[in-house]
Amino acid sequence: MNIKILLITLLLSNSLLAQDKWEVFCNKTFKFSTFYAAVNGGTSLSDLDRYSVTNGLQIETEKTPYDYSVTLGIRKIARFGYENKAQTFYDGSENSWSDAATVGKRDGLEFLFEMDLRRQQGEDYLDQHHFLRYVAPDWITKIEYLQNGFADIEYFEASERYRYKVTNKLSFNIGAVQRIAEPYGYDPLEEWLLSNGNLHYTYLAIEEGYNVDVYASEYSDPSGNIVATSSEVWKEVAIPVMLAEYTERKRNELQRQWTHSLVLGADYYFYKKDKWLHLWTNVMPYHYDEGNEYSYHKYEGKQWIDFSTGAIIGYKLNKSLGCFVEGKYNKYWNREWYDFRFGINYIIL
Known about the structure:
single chain; alpha+beta; Porin; 3 domains; globular
């Protein structure tokens, strides 16, 4: 009986100890973090009237549904000196470009998990940005997932780097990056090109299930719906839709591809109340060729350079006049996405 009591006591003690450790871990990890959820909306493009005189005067009004965004996220990222939180709440519309920097303001663990479902000018997009970043005095590691529906880019990335601090403001890093993404560079239409460089689009459409009756001037999709009643509409309207659907389907059928790369980076951060400079860059000049049939090496034919860079510059000439330049640029595989802004502020006393 004494042994049973001892075992029960030990189990309860271990359970309470594990619970205490878990509470300490959660308090330490999520302290100063912010969870946010928000819905934003607004008017989109105004209605557009389209006129046709094919069968008498016809007017068709094209309406674009309202724009909206639904954002859900949690973040723990120390703000740099130039970042002032002007709003009381996070509403999902914030655009903190310094999140893309390799090194945060403080060493330690930082994270961001954000999902944004939006409709813009009638088009639906899903944007996601998640990352875990740990910065130590002499090493950096980061795991990131990015999906930018507007720029049509999606990838998972992990990096491990050695960090060398030249000063408290300037540091360099070197290491390895592993990325997983769709086979960018793969062209599903290449096999349908003729010797003269033209595309045999009608034959491809028939293979995809479309029906062509040139005598009746009727062109129907695989479901039997009439999509064109003239060769002009067939070529200019129906064919582009068919090609877009075909290429998207063929790309989705392929597995995601690994890319292992060497990465070189640098970060510089200087801040005073009247001037600041924040620069960062990451360059991937070498990529290991695994010989995969759909790897980007096959389409590029040689080594290529992927990179990301950003700059945030602000300068107050006096109490009234100030100017700023901010931007970031990314080029991965054959995809580019970037943002920039600049301006002048003058406070009238």
